[in-house]
Amino acid sequence: MKRWYLYPFSLGYHMVTGIRNTMYDLGIFKSTKFKTPIINVGNLSVGGSGKSPMVMYLAKSLSKYYRTGVLSRGYGRLTKGYDVTNYDSNYKTVGDEAMQLFERFKNRFVIAVSEERVPGAKKVIDDMDLDVLILDDAMQHRAIKAGFNILMTDFNDPYFKDHLLPAGDLRESRAGANRADIIMVSKCPDELTEETKQYYISRIRPTKSQKVFFSSIGYDENVYGTRDKMLPDNNLNYYDILLITGIANPKPLLTHLAKFSQRVKHLKFRDHHNFSDADIKNIVAEYKKLGEYKLILTTEKDYVRLKTFDYLRDLVYYWPINVVIDRKEEFNQVIMNYVNRK
């Protein structure tokens, strides 16, 4: 969203972030390096750009061969400090994104949270004897120097068309993309032409050492509920649907859901919304207004919060997503080359 009337304030923001980045570039501000391979998945903008599905993809792939860990800030949790996600954790203690990872993968890889990335990275690497660590959303957290950076940018709102906060949604200037090893254009339409790809590459203008990839959202064949029970017949067209979202950009989900059902009422909340009792009462009231055959549908991230409310536990279903990468084998090889080289 562009807010041109705030552009004068963006000039001040540009000066502050520019000075900060220069201090890191010159070594005046300390940036800690690690011997263990660290892959950062980040972006330049505020809001959803597909980081979480990419973190999932990398962690799942790398954990087949290496002792793998994921470190996030634990945004939205009610606690502070370092913690490792386990069966006693919930979204209030580790955040919804860490809990989402654990709900899907359990102990397949280590999932830790720490708002202080440097001590958090040291502790999880040493305590868990990791071979590789994935950082979630640390592009601007330059106190830690990742060995490999993946910059995510939304196909429908690419960073090269955006502007700095508060006039636009960029956390730092477009020049920050120069720190990336891979620039991933995410949430692309299913039918993406070579002409369109070349247009994006021409606007990105990658350096000789950078690679540009394209990816889309892939929805699971099944819709799941409590204890991984699947929606009967998986036929969404059969139901009146109350869609609950607390994510930055629900548009892709709405577009995909429209292919299956036109009987959808959408209740939209802000990203990482901490649902209150009043919210739940409103959700229940809206649910009761629906027809005889009805269900509550949400995202995988929102599900870990909504299912904690007793009344909703057996009513709410979620639709898992995965990232689908164009030239996947080449992408995988680039990642493996980095990890093996380290």
UniProtKB/TrEMBL annotation:
- Output one GO BP term: lipid A biosynthetic process
Instruction: Name one molecular function that GO assigns to this entry.
Output: lipid-A 4'-kinase activity
Q: Which UniProt keywords apply?
A: ATP-binding, Kinase, Lipid A biosynthesis, Lipid biosynthesis, Lipid metabolism, Nucleotide-binding, Transferase
Would you tell me the Gene Ontology cellular component terms?
A: plasma membrane
Catalytic activity, as annotated? a lipid A disaccharide + ATP = a lipid IVA + ADP + H(+)
Q: Which InterPro entries match?
A: LpxK, P-loop_NTPase
Q: Does the keyword Ion transport apply?
A: no
Q: Transmembrane residues, as ranges?
A: none
Presence of keyword ATP-binding: yes
Instruction: Cite the EC number.
Output: 2.7.1.130
The pathway that the record names for this protein is:
Glycolipid biosynthesis; lipid IV(A) biosynthesis; lipid IV(A) from (3R)-3-hydroxytetradecanoyl-[acyl-carrier-protein] and UDP-N-acetyl-alpha-D-glucosamine: step 6/6
Name the enzyme group at the top EC level.
transferase
PANTHER family from the xrefs? Answer: TETRAACYLDISACCHARIDE 4'-KINASE, TETRAACYLDISACCHARIDE 4'-KINASE, MITOCHONDRIAL-RELATED
What family does the entry list?
Belongs to the LpxK family.
The entry's function note states: Transfers the gamma-phosphate of ATP to the 4'-position of a tetraacyldisaccharide 1-phosphate intermediate (termed DS-1-P) to form tetraacyldisaccharide 1,4'-bis-phosphate (lipid IVA).
| Protein name (database record) | Tetraacyldisaccharide 4'-kinase
Question: What species is given as this protein's source?
Answer: Chryseobacterium formosense
**Name of the gene:** lpxK
